[in-house]
């Protein structure tokens, strides 16, 4: 049940991020839910491989290349999912940043401080 709620909430955040950005188009809420699911799967399976392969570039750029990897994950979902369109790598990177920020805002109220 918790997974389903997280999936629906992530779909809502994908839909909201696409609404905020002119370079990202989501045709329906169901497409946004699938985009969130595909992003989670891409980040779980493909991103670690890319992170290891591009480790020297990531070190040279002080971690900024991870933004490019995040954008590539968004473009992969764009390629795989009909109804989710991203205009360019720039918009994919911005979408990833906005989505991360929205996830942070949603996550903050539930956190408890331990001393």
Commentary on this structure:
Strands 1-2 form a two-stranded antiparallel ribbon. The longest helix is centred in the first third of the chain and has 19 residues, at 2-20. The chain has six helices and two strands; from the N terminus they run H-E-H-H-H-H-E-H. The chain has helices at residues 2-20, 29-45, 47-53, 55-60, 65-80, 89-107; strands at 24-26, 84-86. With 115 residues, the protein is mostly helical. It has one domain.
Counting DSSP E segments of at least 2 residues, the number of strands comes to 2
State mean pLDDT (0 to 100 scale).
Answer: 92
Q: Give the total of domains.
A: 1
Structural class: mainly alpha
Largest sheet data: 2 strands, antiparallel
- Amino- and carboxy-terminal Cα gap: 30 Å
Round the Cα radius of gyration to an integer and report it. 15 Å
Q: Roughly what fraction of the amino acids lie in strands? A: 5-15%
Summarize the structure.
The protein is mainly alpha-helical and 115 residues long. 73% of the residues lie in helices and 5% in strands. The protein contains six helices and two strands.
Search tags:
mainly alpha; 115 residues; 2 strands; 5% strand; 6 helices; 73% helix
Layout of secondary structure:
Blueprint: H1 2-20, E1 24-26, H2 29-45, H3 47-53, H4 55-60, H5 65-80, E2 84-86, H6 89-107
Antiparallel strand pairs: 1-2
Helix pairs in contact: 1-2, 1-6, 2-5, 5-6
């Amino acid at each position: 049940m918790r997974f389903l709620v997280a999936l629906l909430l992530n779909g809502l955040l994908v839909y909201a991020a696409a609404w905020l950005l002119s370079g990202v188009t989501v045709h329906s809420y169901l497409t946004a839910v699938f985009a969130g699911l595909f992003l989670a799967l891409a980040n779980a399976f493909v991103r670690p491989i890319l992170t290891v392969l591009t480790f020297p570039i990531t070190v040279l750029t002080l971690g900024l290349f991870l933004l490019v990897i995040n954008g590539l994950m968004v473009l992969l979902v764009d390629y795989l999912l009909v109804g989710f369109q991203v205009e360019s790598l720039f918009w994919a990177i911005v979408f990833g940043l906005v989505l991360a920020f929205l996830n942070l805002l949603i996550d903050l109220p539930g956190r408890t401080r331990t001393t």
